[in-house]
Structure formats: C-alpha cells, structure tokens
From TrEMBL:
This is Endo-beta-1,6-galactanase-like domain-containing protein. Signal peptide: none annotated. The lineage of its organism: Eukaryota, Viridiplantae, Streptophyta, Embryophyta, Tracheophyta. Transmembrane segments: none annotated. Residues 36-170 form the Endo-beta-1,6-galactanase-like domain. Pfam families: Glyco_hydr_30_2. GO terms for molecular function: hydrolase activity, hydrolyzing O-glycosyl compounds. Coiled coil: none annotated. It comes from the Eukaryota. InterPro entries: 6GAL-like (IPR039514), 6GAL/EXGAL (IPR039743), GH (IPR017853), Glyco_hydro_b (IPR013780).
Length: 413
C-alpha cells in the first residue's frame, strides 16, 4: 500500500449543468485562460495525498481525466457532444501540458511532494466520454484518438524538461485489450518519451478474464522496452456474495501479476459509498464532523493477503498453470518466500510446489516454517496453525471459497 495516485481535476464549467456525480466533481486549479491559478483548490484530495505520504506512501502519480473545461471543444469536462470524439481543442495543446506540469511543479515546490510520473490520459480510446443528457450522473473524462496522443506526448515531455522536472510520463491508461492497438500506432520518438505503460484490466464480467489480453499486452510492452503498471481496477458488473466478489479480486490480481506481469497494482478508489461492491471501505459521503461508521469489505482483507506480505522489492515468479489461483514471490531482504493460494470453488483443493527456484538462501533438508493466514466468508486474514516442511517441497490443502497466504522462512531450532 505504498502508491497514491492523485487526480489533477479539470474543473466543471459553472455555466453548464454537467450532472457530475457526488464527489466526482473535481476542482481545477485554473478556472479560465486569463485567470490566475487558485492553489487553495482541491484541499480535500490534497489532505488525503499528503496524509498518505505522512503514513508511509512512497510513490506518487498524478493523472488527468479531462483538461479544464475552457480547453475543451464542448465546454464540458464530461466529454464531447459526439460519441467517441476528441474533446481537447488542439489550439490548447500547449496550455494543457503547461497546466499539468504547473500543478506537478507546484506540489514539488510548495509541499515537497515529487510525482514520480504523470498520466495525461484516462481510458482515451474507449469512447464513452461524451455529454449524455440521459445520464443522471457523470464524471470527468476526455477521448483522445491515437493520433492526438501521438501529437500531445512530445509536447508534455518538452514541458517537463523546460521546467526541469524529473517526473516521467506514463501512458495510456486504456483498457488492456485496447493497449496493443495504441502501441502499434505510436512513433519511435513518442515511445521514447514514455517511461511506462499503464493499463486498466477491467472486464465486463468475471467469466470474461481472457478479454483482458494480458499476455499480448505484456509482449507488446516488452517489445518496446517498457514496464507495466496495472493502474486501475474495480469490480465492474460483479454480482454475488461479498466473498465471491472478493475472491474474484484475488483471482484478478493473480492474473495481472502472472500473465500481465505488472510491476505495480492499483485499486480504483479505496473509499466508496454503500450500495455496490466498489471500494475496500464504505461509508456515507457527507461533509460533517460526526464520526463515520465504516464498512470494511471482504475485498479489503483479500487485498491484505497480498499487500501485507508481498512487499516492494519482492520478486514475482510468474506461473503459466493456475495463473488465476496461485502466486509465488520471494523477499531476498527478509529471506522469505510468500505464496498465495486462491480457491474460489466449493470444494477443497490440494496445492504442491517446489520452492527451490525461488529461494537460493534455503539449503537441502532445511526445515521451513510456514506461517499461514486465511480470508473466507467467516475469516478476515486470520492466523492459522503453522506448518513445518522440509526444503524444497511444500503441500497444502486449501479450504473452499478462501484465500490463504503462506510465509515460508527457515526454522531456527
């Protein structure tokens, strides 16, 4: 839990009823072309960002969903009037990259917060950012064609260099099944300006995980020498019991690390309102001083099965078989092996594994202590009795509808 992504808001047009959903109306810092920057804006999101840093977050990314309304063709931060059409007015290309980099620079100068990367697009080719008068709630969004992104990225690179910022460019924050097509449309100089590929691995249903085309995206990114972040995911269109959705999240993470081989994994918004499966924590969204009652979801504990034990710097060892139900990692600093087993079925499952390739610090016939933690319908990252194995083989029986994390370390007698 060491990454915080910060949304640089475009800022709604006060002359339009943009029907932005509650708490999706992001303040912008520059309300007009001739108006000075208002650095007091967006104080609530900034409080969370700086609070995350104070509590141990170490990696920060800024991202944009839409340019300010006055830079758009429609005058709205929710998209163009025509379905799937670009909304940034090309006449404001330079103004847009200046806006993004000025925010990045101000956070560095004023609050000593360095954004490691900036993501100028969000789901740019998916086509759903438009002014939809039939939709009761909207959010900021902007379509960018491949040619528009190709035009804009070098300008953003120049603006960062001009302001002597070390912030890198990440792109394209598109759904993973569209990412290969975007990469094929980029020139060499544009690809050289990009430091990392961000993808969203949403699928329309949990039974359609193959739609994410993770292997193809990984191969395309490797071919241009770029690492991958899975920068946004949530339980889109998921149904069922809380534990079923949570285990679906676990399977999704396992696929993203085994097949996509992402070097970072980010949930969408940790805090959401009750009434859906979105969010790790849920509460009513009202501005008052009264203490809130919080609902801690099963997804929170399933994510904990990964994040509490697979720490920054751990090595992931991708597997082909059981890619959706098994994750193997090793922590060279702690001299530990961490294995995650996911069983979404209604029956017990046996898992066996040879850990010799993961941990050169273990020797033949070493006794290994396995510390176990499990989340199920009735358990929340509960500690289980430890097991003892003789290196290099381990075996475990995993309960139905559960996720179990095994932390292996040398037993000191």
């Amino acid at each position: 839990m060491n990454i915080a992504r910060y949304n640089i808001g475009g800022g709604a047009n006060p002359e339009l009823n943009e029907r932005l959903r509650p708490f999706g109306c992001m303040p912008g810092f520059k309300p007009g072309p001739t108006v000075a920057y208002d650095w007091s804006a967006d104080s609530r999101q900034r409080t969370i960002l700086l609070g995350a840093r104070d509590r141990g977050a170490t990696v920060f990314e800024a991202f944009s969903n839409s340019p300010p309304h006055w830079m758009t063709l429609s005058g709205s931060v929710t998209g163009n009037t025509r379905w799937g059409q670009d909304n940034l007015d090309p006449a404001y290309d330079v103004a847009f990259v200046d806006y993004l980099t000025e925010v990045v620079k101000h956070y560095q100068d004023q609050w000593n917060l360095h954004f490691e990367s900036i993501a100028p697009f969000n789901e740019p080719v998916e086509g759903w950012w438009n002014i939809n008068k039939e939709k009761t709630t909207a959010q900021e969004g902007c379509n960018f064609s491949i040619s528009s992104m190709r035009r804009l990225i070098p300008k953003l690179k120049d603006a960062l260099a001009h302001k002597k910022l070390q912030t890198k460019i990440s792109a394209f924050d598109s759904w993973s099944q569209n990412t290969t097509r975007i990469l094929l449309g980029m020139d060499e100089d544009v690809l050289a300006a990009i430091d990392r590929i961000n993808v969203h691995t949403y699928v329309f249903h949990k039974s359609l995980e193959n739609w994410a085309k993770r292997r193809q995206v990984r191969e395309a990114s490797e071919s241009v020498g770029k690492k991958i972040w899975m920068s946004e995911y949530g339980p889109l269109n998921w149904h069922g019991e809380d534990i079923d959705v949570a285990l679906g999240l676990g399977r999704h993470i396992s696929l993203d690390l085994n097949e996509l081989q992402a070097s970072a994994w980010c949930y969408w918004q940790a805090l959401e309102m009750p009434g859906s499966f979105w969010g790790l924590i849920q509460t009513s969204f009202t501005y008052d001083v009264e203490p809130k009652s919080l609902i801690i979801t099963k997804q929170y504990y399933v994510l904990m099965q990964f994040t509490k034990w697979i720490r920054p710097g751990c090595h992931i060892f991708p597997v082909e078989n059981f890619a959706d139900s098994f994750l193997a990692s090793a922590d060279p600093a702690a001299k530990q092996v961490v294995l995650v087993f996911i069983n979404a079925s209604t029956t017990f499952k046996h898992f066996g594994f040879d850990v010799s390739l993961l941990a050169p610090w273990f020797k033949t016939d070493d006794k290994l202590e396995a510390t176990l933690f499990r989340t199920s319908a009735l358990e929340n990252h509960e500690r289980l009795p430890s097991l003892i194995f003789t290196f290099p083989s381990i075996m475990i029986l995993v309960n139905s509808k559960s996720i179990t994390t095994m932390v292996l370390s040398k037993l000191i007698s």
